[in-house]
Design goal:
- With about 450 residues, the chain is α+β, with helices and mostly antiparallel strands.
- The chain has two domains: about 180 residues, Periplasmic binding protein-like II (D-Maltodextrin-Binding Protein, domain 2), CATH 3.40.190.10; about 220 residues, Periplasmic binding protein-like II (D-Maltodextrin-Binding Protein, domain 2, 3-Layer(aba) Sandwich).
- It has 19 helices and 14 strands.
- The strands form four sheets. Strands 2-3-4-1-5-13 form a six-stranded mixed sheet. A three-stranded antiparallel sheet has the order 11-8-12.
- It is globular, with a radius of gyration of 22 Å.
- The chain starts with 11 loop residues before the first helix and ends with a strand.
- About 45% of the residues are buried.
- The N terminus is likely disordered.
Length: about 450
């Protein structure tokens, strides 16, 4: 799902859209309405993932153009795909511009549906540019009842749900079986989990791995989400950024791992990080959520690494990523959007088929469907040596807590990691790194007046 890291933090509509409009339908742009009968359905996204899911699994598909730029539905509607890669915030910037111009756009040019990620979902959800998927689109509570609650919470404001998703993205710890045997004497997931059950034990295994000539993690960012998803409060209260104790624990651990040689000083998505997942890599394991196993790790591991991986829960439950479908204010394809959302995010049979597909094995947003697969003794991942990773994901998904999500998550998470890399590399001391973070966060969000660090 994510082969390009989001690195931009500029939020074009951070003040314009989110700050001036609220949840519901106040201040709807003049000339923008919701209707049906449009012959062109414009869907905006940042990569191929949803387009491939749509073309492969949506029952309304009649034909896909040779260049995949359009998909023709059985009712004659032409789906036009607009894909803007999310490098340097490119996707959000272009989406923002298009949404601002939505009222004046020609009918066949208006955005009908667009996709968002968890880190910036609230920016769009808490605005009049997205529709209530129940009141405006027509999905029912009964249809949405089998979805994981956190996937609904993340796109809801004041009880109004403004998006829906076909996937859930709980995270696990993926480890090399051969390295686990060398370090722990076993590659059995239950026994490896026992050894990694909390952060103190995780650190102990890191020391053992180092003594055996291995690295525990690849780089600076690998464990970040596992810490940041378990904070005790939102990033921002009023105009103050509050750095959680769990974020400081990540800083302390990563600095120690770097100084002790427990990692290879890589960053997520760079060449060194990818090669560390290859058959010749020396890294014990990687934190990955559902999409990462088959969409990133499998490719990086290569044929030689096939079967040499397994997963366990790791030291703490977490999630990473996810993609939500939002209906755009001004759409003239509300009925088509309703059917797409129903079939791809509420139809258990279709979602289960995505998970059972050996090539895809996406973890889908159906509690009952995932429990059925978790209990299926014949289901497993060949890449993971036959392990039924869905059984682990199913248990972790129930523990995901989104109560501390805020509109500032993307900027705070990206800028704290960026500021601390100079500290990890020994280029600045901790106080300077903290000051650099404070400066950058206030530049990104001018309304922020203070940053509070845990004592």
């Amino acid at each position: 799902m994510k082969k390009v890291m989001k690195v931009g933090t500029a939020l074009l509509l951070g003040a314009t859209m989110v700050g001036l409009t609220g949840c519901g339908h106040k201040n709807i742009p003049a000339g923008v309405s919701v209707s049906n009968g449009g012959k062109v359905l414009n869907i905006w996204c940042w990569n191929e993932e949803f387009r491939s899911r749509f073309n492969d699994f949506y029952p309304g598909v009649a034909e896909v153009s040779s260049d995949k730029a359009t998909t023709t539905l059985k009712d004659g509607t032409v789906v036009k795909w607009t894909i803007n890669e999310n490098v340097n915030n490119n996707y959000q910037n272009k989406l923002d511009e298009a949404l601002i111009a939505q009222a004046k756009a020609a009918a066949d040019d208006k955005i009908d549906m667009f996709l968002v990620e968890a880190d910036y979902a609230l920016k769009y959800v808490d605005s009049d540019y997205t529709l209530d998927i129940q009141k405006d689109i027509g999905l029912t509570k009964e249809e949405l009842a089998d979805q994981y609650q956190y996937t609904k919470d993340i796109v809801s404001v004041d009880g109004v749900q403004k998006g829906t998703t076909w996937q859930a993205t709980p995270g696990l710890f993926a480890y090399r079986r051969s390295i686990a045997k060398a370090v722990l004497g076993t590659d059995d997931p239950d026994k490896v989990q026992e050894a990694l059950a909390n952060w103190d034990k995780f650190d102990e295994v890191a020391a053992k791995a180092h003594d055996k000539g291995y690295k525990m993690l690849s780089g600076f960012d690998d464990s970040y989400r596992t810490f940041s998803n378990n904070v005790s409060a939102p990033w921002v209260t009023g105009t103050t950024v509050n750095v959680d104790k769990n974020i400081m624990r990540w800083i302390e651990q990563t600095k120690a791992y770097t100084d002790k040689g427990y990692n290879n000083k890589t960053s997520l998505w760079d060449d060194g990080w990818a090669s560390d997942q290859g058959a010749d890599g020396d890294v014990f394991g990687f934190f990955y959520s559902t999409w990462g196993i088959n969409f990133t790790l499998l490719g990086n591991a290569g044929e030689k690494g096939f079967g040499d991986w397994a997963v366990c829960y790791g030291p703490a439950p977490y999630y990473w990523g996810g993609t939500w479908l939002c209906a755009a204010q001004g759409t003239d394809n509300a009925d088509d959007i309703k059917d797409i959302m129903e079939q791809l995010t509420c139809n258990t049979e279709i979602m289960e088929s995505m998970t059972r597909d050996q090539e895809i094995q996406d973890y889908t947003n159906t509690i009952s469907g995932m429990k059925d697969i978790a209990e299926d003794k014949n289901f497993g991942s060949d890449f993971l040596g036959g392990e039924n990773h869905v059984a682990l994901f199913s248990e972790t998904a129930e523990k995901i807590d989104m109560s501390n999500i805020s509109p500032y998550d993307q900027g705070c998470n990206e800028l704290i990691q960026r500021a601390m890399k100079d500290y990890f590399n020994g280029n600045v001391d901790l106080d300077t790194a903290k000051q650099n973070f404070e400066t950058s966060i206030k530049e990104a969000y001018p309304e922020i007046t203070d940053v509070a660090w845990p004592t």
